[in-house]
Amino acid sequence: MKVKKEINIEDILYQAKRKNKTINSKKILEAYEYAKEKHKNQLRKSGEPYIIHPMHVAYILANLNLDTETICAALLHDVVEDTEATYEDIDNIFGNQIAQIVEGVTKLGYLFKTVEQKQAENYTKMFIAMEKDIRIIILKLADRLHNISTLQYLKRDRQIAISKETIELYAPIAHKLGMYDLKMKLEDGAFKFLYPKEYENITNKLDEQINKAKQLLEKTKDEIKTQLRRQKIIASVKIETKHIYNIYKKMRQKKIHIEEIKDLFSIKIITNKKQDCYRILGIINTLYNLIPGTFKDYIATPRNNMYQAIHEVILGEKGVILEIQICSYTMNKIAKYGITNYFPYIQKGKIENKQELEFKNKLYGIHDSLELKNIIKDPKEFLNTLKSELLDDEVYLFTPKGDIKVLPRGATAVDFAYLIHEQIGRHIVGCKINSIEMPVITKLKNGDIVEILTSDENIKVKEEWLEIVKTAKAKSNILKQLKKEKQEAKKKKEIEILALDRKNLVLEITNIFAKNNINIQSVHTNSNENKVKIYIVIEITENKNLKKIINEIILLNNVIKVKEK
Question: Model-level pTM greater than 0.90?
Fold first, then answer.
């Protein structure tokens, strides 16, 4: 998915046809001619004709195996916003599907009053776009990818704002969609302009490290290839380097130098079958020493966005440290292109296997975030929850039956309960973590086996849970429950009656409520010498004349005072 310096419509058509045999070249050409005409007098900040931008976006999408409608929408995506063309024009000429994608991308570009509000609204619009038509968000990501490659023509403040938004919003969305190749390019492109000195420094040091390790890496690669051939395993073996922004993050998080990063280099082994991945793992572990604590089997426990591979860090030739990644060709394709691998099935409403169904379910489970936005009015609070889901690392957890669940790092047993089902969350009274009873607000760690203990009754949620839970699903459900409890509390009223104690007084008082059709929820008394205080909790509705009832009670013998609480 390389962004070429210069492209033409023939490049776009060639890539589109090569990736997708159902492409309608004639329709794409019509969209190109229309966009070219509408943008003919417009220039970008670089001085290039404006049409260059939509062509680059279309080329990126052609490489991603997108369909005719999405590529046409890419060519047309700025005409409604930047020319006299209207949504109706696009609808009439190119059809409703293309018009809706163009409209969806256009709506994602509007500005808001504050930075937090803009970010919160952008997240919301992104999620709405995902649920409405996934092609909208994929087009927007491609649009951003080309835009960050031309940031040098903008003022410094715009470079910073766009780069920050790319890293905080667009790259995590690409990650959520499983599009690692796109995510990596977005992060590195934005990092280059956000921290130019750090980018240059890491790039130079990385080149030095590559030159130092090159011969040993090649030797390790050749040895692995030789052993695979001897075992008659067909696989491609290639050397890869950690991308720039990931190096920067690791250096900052662990406060280390680039030389101390264990997985700076990796050898990626791609084979035909899932079974061969484990055969290759056995060969690697026979050849080299594994660095303890670095083995991760994402084939057995896929990441939330369906990423699958085996990772481990080894000591290669003459002690060179490198990561080994093993996957099948299908897994590698999913890792690079994510949701676009399943696009034809999702659009047709046909899912071909369990993995694709899980991906679709996770993708469209985003409605929890939309619900949260409707409940939380403070943009900062909304953003904090969303960023924890998008940006935080994941922990892999197990139910007592062995089912795998994935949550953001720092999530609690309460998050786990709501992840399983809303009703489990509403009835949680405790939890067992690795068979030991623990508080429900305990933070969960990788590999924990979590059992949720429930009650037959709905529990009363605690407001402080909102500060502890990490997921939008848990937070939105807790907020809804708190709101419901407050509404129910408003329907109750306590009446306090002070009287001289006498026989049948309580009975006479309750009869007054009964004849006025008011339900009594509880009655209790507190006597002191010859005086008594009677506390009655009633269900109250707006149409009930409580003042009239209180007046009736005051007229009873021995009643001194009646007070609403």
Answer: no
